[in-house]
Amino acid sequence: MSPAEARLKEVPSNMTEAEWQQRVNLAACYRLVSLYGWDDLVDTHISARVPGPDHHFLINPYGLMFDEITASSLVKVDLHGNQLSESEYSINPAGFTIHSAIHEVREDAICVLHLHTLDGTAVSSSAEGLLPLNQTAQLVTHDLAYHDYEGIALDHDERPRLQQDLGDHNHMLLRNHGTLTVGRSVASAFERMYHLERACSMQVRTRALGTPVYPVEDIAIEKNTELLANRDRAELRATNLVWPPLLRKLDRELPGYRS
């Protein structure tokens, strides 16, 4: 049996193959976040839109650690917060506020990834924000938005402000809170978060040296901004070059997400 046939055989009878594949990719993303040490107990969340016209999306059951998430355990909800799949768990209400806001207005935001990492939250709490100090940071800073902290995101009235602040950007620092990325696929949202988190960690370490920062020439920043503006190319890189080896890594080190 080929891998494609094996995947098809695993599709439950109550969903399409497209939904199942999205579930597998999203479950893999949760496990990768855990593998990279970016998780925060049962908090933070990643969502992915179910293929189709209904704007339903998948999100984690509130009460499972990220390394426990499987394709079948993900919860499907609509934009009103109604759970559309059976689960003994509810969903994180703050997670619903953030993710529904973005899925409601960004057709291209198929996946939304939000974290509370140490370095990401540290930089989000710094008045200077993320600076284009190095090549990795410049993968992000040309496409970075900010949203001011309004308390734990339980108030649905915050959603229009979050939508406005994100605009058409794909990276965001939630001030005093954490990091957020979006992508046309789970793969591109994850790769963007990888670069955002590394850029934050690099800035924290650079500042910790206590020495003057060697400046990057403006012309180099402009060159990189122009080069990185092609979102179609970024999507192809994420899905075809980066994601397959990440899944192989996960299959070696933290398998079980496909169940």
From TrEMBL:
SUPFAM superfamilies in the record: AraD/HMP-PK domain-like
Residue span, Class II aldolase/adducin N-terminal domain: 24-204
Pfam families found in the cross-reference section: Aldolase_II (PF00596)
GO CC annotations, alphabetized: cytoskeleton
Coiled-coil intervals, chain numbering: none
GO molecular function: actin filament binding
NCBIfam families: PRK07044.1
Family: Belongs to the aldolase class II family.
Name of the protein this chain belongs to: Class II aldolase/adducin family protein
Organism: Bradyrhizobium cytisi
